Amino acid sequence: MEKIKIGVFGFGKTGKVIASEFLNDNLFTLVWVVRKSHDDHHKYASRLLGYEFDAGEIFTGEDIGEDFFLERPVDALIDFSDSTGIYLYKRAAEAGITIISAISKYEQEELDLLKSFAQCTTVLYSPNITLGINVLMVAAQILQKIAPHADIEIVEEHFKGKKEVSGTAQKIANSLGLNVEEHLNSIRVGGIVGRHEIIFGMPNQTIRLSHESISRAAFGQGAIFAIKFLIGKPPGMYTMETIIAEMFRQNIPVY
């Protein structure tokens, strides 16, 4: 089977872990990595991450010209950089390259641009691309429909240095129709990567749905899951939630 060719935007803490996940999976070939700085320009991500082979040549945004995506073709690109990365891969969308964005927040103009790419290729946008958190969100929405009168609280826990409220927790609140200020509780301690819990309070019982990211590798595994699903799909806008919801529908047990 021919390997799936991948390009990655972003080579910070998360980007490096994501690149490593693709390097470790025999289904994929990491073709290139685009980063902001000129550090390690034209070196190979694989070598920098300790592998003894060449893969993932490193470029900067300045290297992306008219023919970049034609000269270095990939099947999909994964964006773990920042919101400005979206302005670099219009040509990729036009070339039919699948785009997966895991950027935490876009301005409306940027989001509109990303949606416009879906007219000619498959585009997936999920600020938190981990498989588990999206299963959690879909399950919570189902449970809310089953028990619409339950009290619901959301608890998000992250590392001590994270100042802002979790974007994922806010998205969970919005998906459940909850006021963020009233129903979202934040905890900052130690080096927690990320933990989200949704608590449903009902008379005589409590249901807790929780997800914890042990490592940033969970984001890479989510991206791999998304690519496998999107290969061969028609152009359009997708999210991890819609993929998981479809799988829920296909796998509901029959009694």
From TrEMBL:
Domain Dihydrodipicolinate reductase N-terminal per the UniProt entry, residue ranges: 4-128
Q: Give the reaction(s) catalysed.
A: (S)-2,3,4,5-tetrahydrodipicolinate + NADP(+) + H2O = (2S,4S)-4-hydroxy-2,3,4,5-tetrahydrodipicolinate + NADPH + H(+); (S)-2,3,4,5-tetrahydrodipicolinate + NAD(+) + H2O = (2S,4S)-4-hydroxy-2,3,4,5-tetrahydrodipicolinate + NADH + H(+)
Please state the Enzyme Commission number of this protein: 1.17.1.8
**Domain Dihydrodipicolinate reductase C-terminal per the UniProt entry, residue ranges:** 132-243
Keywords assigned by UniProt, alphabetized: Amino-acid biosynthesis, Diaminopimelate biosynthesis, Lysine biosynthesis, NAD, NADP, Oxidoreductase
Q: Name one Pfam family in it.
A: DapB_C
The pathway entry for this protein reads as: Amino-acid biosynthesis; L-lysine biosynthesis via DAP pathway; (S)-tetrahydrodipicolinate from L-aspartate: step 4/4
Family as reported in the entry's similarity comment: Belongs to the DapB family.
Protein name as annotated: 4-hydroxy-tetrahydrodipicolinate reductase
